[in-house]
Amino acid sequence: MKTRILALRPALLLAPILLAGCVSFGAKVPPQLLRLSPVAEAPANAGEVLGKGLAVAVSYPSAPIELSNNRVPVRTGATQIAYVKNAQWIDAPAHLFRDLLAETITVRTGRPTVTPREASLAQGPRLAGRLLAFGIDAGANRAAVSYDATLVRNDGQIEARRFTATAPVSGAITEASAGTAINAAANDVAVQVADWVGR
């Protein structure tokens, strides 16, 4: 009996090693990841003193479940969603879009932006919202970005507005063409929001 247990021990030790080659503990990361690129970026500077009410606090938008991962959704019908094969954002769409909004607001208004955690330091306008669409409409072969924004201005006035933009997908829907089209539509929305905030 003791001899049999000793004989089985090497096989038992090898089992986890053999299984490791068959089991995957997470999705395979594609060779390239997508990101948003702003049309213009604020230049480096020597720093500035933030006057009260000057900085804009930009929150991370909420998002529906289809945008709660790093994949690129494609609407294939009124109630159907697929994802672009091998396409994956480097971060959650809501995080990428918030950073694009902040950069665009700074460039177009000349006002610095801060995260919600830093908002108490500047006590300026506060921008929040919900990212409704951030993907591809297969029927129209276009990227679509939609953002419901809520802005609390310095005087306490609360404004709400929906911003939307589309951009054509060049050729077949691939990770490259989808990423380029969504980037264009997202920049369009960010410019609209920045101009609204800067009024």
UniProtKB/TrEMBL annotation:
Residues 40-194 form the ABC-type transport auxiliary lipoprotein component domain. It comes from the Bacteria. Keywords: Lipoprotein. It holds the Pfam family ABC_trans_aux. Gene3D superfamilies: ABC-type transport auxiliary lipoprotein component (3.40.50.10610). This is ABC-type transport auxiliary lipoprotein family protein. It comes from Sphingomonas abietis.
